Amino acid sequence: MNYFTQSIKVLGIAVALALPASAFAAEPAMVKDGMFTDHKGMTLYTFGKDSGGKSMCNDKCAANWPPFKAESGDKPMDEWTVINRDDGTMQWAYDGKPLYTFVKDTKAGEKNGDGLMDGAWKVAKPD
Asked: What is the mean pLDDT of residues 58-76?
């Protein structure tokens, strides 16, 4: 076997080993202390008025409860889905529930929005 053939085989093996790792994208959120957070550690919430995988939090509501945005290349995985919002942007949902942050949470791990609006806002937790 010559040097060129060996190089091609080694390259092929390297590509084959790298493909499975790149096929699995990271989940859009993390679990910390039993609740979902974004990758900056900010608490994620669900809104009790959302239903059927549709966000009911728009305009002023979305200014106070920013949607957990999904990017155009983001793909659903397992219980994570991407929903289209009324304003044309995309938002992450977990188990059909759209996710949000809260503007009054200024530090990672704060949960100032939990239970607001007569309990309509709740900290998002995995099943």
From this structure: 96
Structure tokens at 91: 């938002």
Exposed e or buried b for every residue in 59-93, given b needs 16+ CB within 10 A? eeebeebebbbbeeeeeeeeebbbbebeeeeebbb
The dihedrals phi and psi of 3, each to the nearest 5 degrees, come to -60, -40
pLDDT at 94: 97
Average pLDDT, the chain: 87
The structure tokens 């239970």 sit at 115
Going by C-beta distance under 8 Å and a sequence separation of 6 or more, which residues neighbour residue 74? Answer: 28, 82, 90, 92
According to the model, what pLDDT value does residue 3 have? Answer: 53
CB-based contacts of 107, cutoff 8 Å, min separation 6: none
Tell me, what amino acid is at 34? G
So what's the pLDDT on residue 17? Answer: 46
Cα pseudo-dihedral 83, 93, 38, 105, rounded to 10: 100
